[in-house]
Design goal:
263 residues, mainly beta, six-stranded mixed sheet, 0% helix
Length: 263
């Protein structure tokens, strides 16, 4: 009776849970081999190259971790050898790595073992428009979330989620909480102080549909600007790199056609 085959190495020795990678198995006694198993699941496309080498396509498995690779010759299996690792997905970066609470931003997620990915979560909320570009890259549209701050981005492959990775920051939209003064002449040119929050990286200030001039960033909570010409009562909105402030009652500026006096 001939000696049982032995498995001494597998190259490459790791893959995503989805499988489908051509691997080279080295060992002894492979002549006449009829089957190769990974964690008990049969490999495909088996080719016996020599008595010491076999190529095969590893199977899909839903179990991450190091698994046995076995070769069968004449009904005899090689001894179990934990020489191959099925890897859970890993997220290493997100670009861009910040955005408004409204979401809807196309992002690129990089990492490893993304083949077969079926879901992407931002802080537990599902992303949309998921496209697996390669084993190391996914594009997706991030979801709306009501929680500002740094959050986890996770990728799911074969029912297994990547470890939580705090790699994306949701930032609150700017908010206007008050104007001083809240009135001005129709001709414009009134110097206004706008109070609120989230004003860092201010891009523009609008009085209704008209842009303000002389915008000066004082702090995240204060901007000064010069009101444009206008009429009636208008909402003053602030736009930053994150987005535009929501319209609310305290952001209204009143134009008047007569000289105004302020306390």
């Amino acid at each position: 009776m001939s000696a049982a085959p032995t498995v001494t190495g597998v190259s490459p020795n790791s893959d995503s849970l989805n499988g489908g990678t051509t691997v080279t198995i080295t060992g002894t006694g492979f002549t006449g081999a009829t089957a190769v198993n990974f964690n008990g699941a049969g490999a495909s496309n088996i080719q016996v190259i020599s008595d010491t080498q076999i190529t095969a396509t590893n199977p899909n498995t839903g179990t991450p971790g190091q698994v046995n690779v076995e070769v069968q010759v004449q009904g005899t299996w090689s001894a179990t050898a934990k020489l191959f690792t099925y890897c859970a997905p890993v997220v290493t970066a997100v670009s861009p790595n910040s955005g408004s609470l409204a979401g809807n931003i196309p992002v690129t997620i990089t990492g490893q073992y993304f083949t077969g990915a079926t879901a992407v979560n931002f802080n537990g909320a599902g992303a949309s428009n998921i496209q697996v570009i390669s084993d190391t890259q996914i594009t997706a549209t991030n979801p709306n979330t009501g929680t500002p701050g740094q959050i986890n981005v996770e990728v799911q492959v074969q029912g297994t989620w990547s470890a939580p990775a705090d790699l994306f920051t949701y930032k609150a939209l700017p908010a206007v909480t008050g104007l001083s003064p809240g009135k001005g002449a129709n001709a414009g040119s009134t110097a206004i102080t706008i109070n609120g929050s989230g004003f860092t990286r201010v891009k523009s200030v609008m009085f209704g549909s008209n842009p303000a001039t002389n915008i000066n960033f004082v702090s995240d909570a204060k901007i000064t600007a010069t009101a444009p010409a206008g009429s009636g009562t208008v909402d003053v909105t602030v736009t930053t790199s994150i987005g535009t402030s929501a319209i609310c009652g305290v952001d209204q500026f009143q134009y008047a056609s007569i000289p105004l006096y302020f306390n």
